[in-house]
Amino acid sequence: MNPMESVVIAVPTYRRPELLARLLRSLRHEVADTGVLLVLGDNDPDRGDAERVVDSSDLRDACEVACIPVRQPGVAEVRNALVRAATRLRPGWEWLVMLDDDGHVPPGWLTTITTAAREGGADVTAGPVLGDLPAGASRLAHNSLYAGRTRHPSGPVAMLNGAQNIVVRRRILERIGDPWFPTHLGRAGGEDHFFFRAVLDQGGTLAWCDEAPVTEPTPADRLTAGALLRRAYRSNLVGTQTDLAFHGPVLTSRRLAVDAGWLLRKTASAAVRRDRDGLAEALLGSASIAGRAAGFVRRTPPDASHTGC
């Protein structure tokens, strides 16, 4: 059996046809004649963006493509539907590659990340997400996760950040069981952090492949100071609730105290040195710490604009 026939690429999408079209163009040569299955989960199927974008491309000439409707809103619902679809459409699949609809991949990306997953043996292998900021983006934006998420040397890691550009081994999904991504979070986001905690809770392992990046552009409306601070606050609030569920209040509060102390020292150092980038990082860090503290007392995740993907 061609090893690539055991690979399914899963993409949740919601009302971003232009970005989805760019992603599919970048995937065209990655999947051509490989035997890979590509599944798109459309979270607004009445608009029909996924089908329309695929039909206007030549992607079906390159690989098998399926578009599935997901009417229940929220990215967790779509991710769960994509896992189910992979098993229904390709019963013998072994590796599930997850991408978001707003990124695009460089030549050689698929071979690089799937080879790292096979050879490394981890249950989830992730690659970098490189930021692509518009001209004139603020200093705060340039110090946010949108400028590029944390990178690591290739190899085992303790935690991952985000389900964009990951390869998941089937065995860990079978251990966790359906639903793999928590639907109780609704539209608040944070389903990826919960999933990674569930992987570790089931004895799974995480790894990094720094040679397989995805580039993700960010629209200007997500880069205002208010939007950046709200994102930092909200994601850490939900993340803390996940940590409480898996680790309890003692360990979670201890980690919060350590990180808050580190932030105070970092802020003081940046102020003394008049380091504007350091101060921008500290401001975002303060919003994150505030969100983590709020996570101890707020039990219902805050709603957000459709994070679906």
UniProtKB/TrEMBL annotation:
Which residues constitute the signal peptide according to the record? none
Q: Name the pathway it acts in.
A: Cell wall biogenesis; cell wall polysaccharide biosynthesis
Keyword annotations from UniProtKB, A to Z: Glycosyltransferase, Transferase
One protein family per Pfam: Glycos_transf_2
Q: Name one GO molecular function term.
A: glycosyltransferase activity
The domain of life for this entry's organism is: Bacteria
Gene3D superfamilies reported in the protein's UniProt record: Spore Coat Polysaccharide Biosynthesis Protein SpsA, Chain A
Q: Any idea where the Glycosyltransferase 2-like domain is?
A: 9-176
Query: What's this protein's family per the entry?
Result: Belongs to the glycosyltransferase 2 family.
User: This chain belongs to which protein, by name?
Assistant: Putative glycosyltransferase
Which species is this UniProt entry from? Mobilicoccus pelagius NBRC 104925
